[in-house]
């Protein structure tokens, strides 16, 4: 399975809490919901529709999974919600109990064995393993060379600090720009794929 990352991102590389004020206030982050002024339903909604259509499963960290599990099941009847609700889901967590995995088709991957288990999923046949949000998980996947595609929706705003998906380990990683589209709200939708080391 290809591992595909979809992320809203500020121009200074922040991915924290694009959806709402209380989504993630770690570190005193005060700009939750910053993506809303730039959301173009046609251009940006299309990115997620396409990603979900090609996905065979979802992969999330605990916080993102809990946010999504609290929102999508009650939106049944919407084609995008129905697609997400039907897909198999994997959540990386040391703390969630099996009795808390209430979102349909969810399997827990213990944090301590996450890289090994995700590597096994990555090596299986099938469609995409889609990751939305989950900044800590995405950083780990990038560091481990497990990301096949990044779909970044880069918004024309500077947030001055917050969570990033990019590893800070000093390693050089080269990407190929596969496509770019600019929305009417000034968002650059950029698709990148890692370039294999020579």
Question: Can you give keywords for this protein?
Answer:
single chain, 198 residues, alpha/beta, eight-stranded mixed sheet, 5 helices, 26% strand, globular
How would you describe this structure to a colleague?
This protein is an alpha/beta fold and 198 residues long. It has helices at residues 43-54, 62-69, 79-86, 114-122, 135-143, and strands spanning 2-10, 55-61, 89-92, 106-109, 128-132, 149-155, 175-182, 188-194. Strands 4-3-2-5-1-6-8-7 form an 8-stranded mixed β-sheet, sandwiched between helices. The two termini are 23 Å apart. The model has no long low-confidence stretch (mean pLDDT 95).
Radius of gyration, in Å, reads 16 Å
The major pleated sheet works out as: 8 strands, mixed
Unreliable residue runs: none
Distance from N terminus to C terminus (CA atoms, Å) equals 23 Å
Query: Biggest sheet, strands in spatial order?
Result: 4-3-2-5-1-6-8-7
Describe the structure concisely.
This protein is α/β, with parallel strands linked by helices.
């Amino acid at each position: 399975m290809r591992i595909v990352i979809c992320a809203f991102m500020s121009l200074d590389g922040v991915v924290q809490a694009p959806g709402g004020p209380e989504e993630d206030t770690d570190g005193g982050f005060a700009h939750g919901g910053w993506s809303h002024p730039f959301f173009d339903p046609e251009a940006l909604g299309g990115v997620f529709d396409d990603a979900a259509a090609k996905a065979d499963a979802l992969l999330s960290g605990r916080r993102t999974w809990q946010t999504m599990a609290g929102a999508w099941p009650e939106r049944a009847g919407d084609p995008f919600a129905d697609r997400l609700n039907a897909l198999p889901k994997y959540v990386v967590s040391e703390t969630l109990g099996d009795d808390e995995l209430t979102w349909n088709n969810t399997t827990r991957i213990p944090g301590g064995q996450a890289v090994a288990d995700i590597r096994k999923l990555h090596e299986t046949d099938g469609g995409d393993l889609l990751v939305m949000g989950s900044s800590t998980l995405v950083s780990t996947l990038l560091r481990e060379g497990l990301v096949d595609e990044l779909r970044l929706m880069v918004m024309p705003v500077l947030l001055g600090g917050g969570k990033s998906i990019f590893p800070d380990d000093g390693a050089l990683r080269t990407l190929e720009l596969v496509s770019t589209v600019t929305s009417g709200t000034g968002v650059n939708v950029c698709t990148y794929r890692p370039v294999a080391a020579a």
